[in-house]
Amino acid sequence: MSIVRFPRSLRDNALSLFFFVIFVLALIGQSIAGFLRNNEELAQHGMPEQGYLSFVFSSDFIVDVAENWQSEFLQFLLFIAATVWLVQRGSPESKKPGDEGVGTDEDQKVGRHAPADAPKWARVSGWRRVVYENSLVIVMGAIFALSWLMQSLSGTVVMNQENAEHGTAPVTWGEYVVSPEFWDRTLQNWQSEFLAVGTMVAFSIFLRQRSSAEAKPVGAPHTESAEESQ
User: Fold this and answer.
1) Whole-model pTM?
2) Strand, helix or coil at 214?
């Protein structure tokens, strides 16, 4: 029996590709389900159906997508930044106690300590290295900010559509972002993301998943962090 061998480029990037594919499938599924639900509601009110593309580019769909994106990227932004300075003994999601802080140039392999195959901006000094050594937080923060802005702008449109249907005055963007409607939608996502990260950090102290990069070796002591297990 022949064994299917995938190209090395696929094997080497399988984790990223897997999550990208299921993300696209889930987004398509969300758009179809939302499209069908929206047309059911329109039919109940005796209104004409909305086309699929019209729905996908509508504020109703965009606000739901952006609302989830901004909470996800905020979760990782805070987690990445917090793990620089905060530790949790025994968790593979944390550095070991005593390693808090940004570390030395030698630890981080930058400047004169950088190997020959290090990224170019890791070998230089000045603003370019500062940007590169904080690039993950910068990009995550930028995506969070853009998603938050997209959520707030599309949410303003949705609220004003609802206000028009009920004969009430429209609101400005500034009024919407301080409204209970906006923060109810926002905080219900934030609290779930923070709970998920916190439980992952805590559960991974005592629980294991063999061969997962997100877990310690099965036989590692509970008080041992991932770096100490290597």
Assistant:
1) 0.89
2) coil
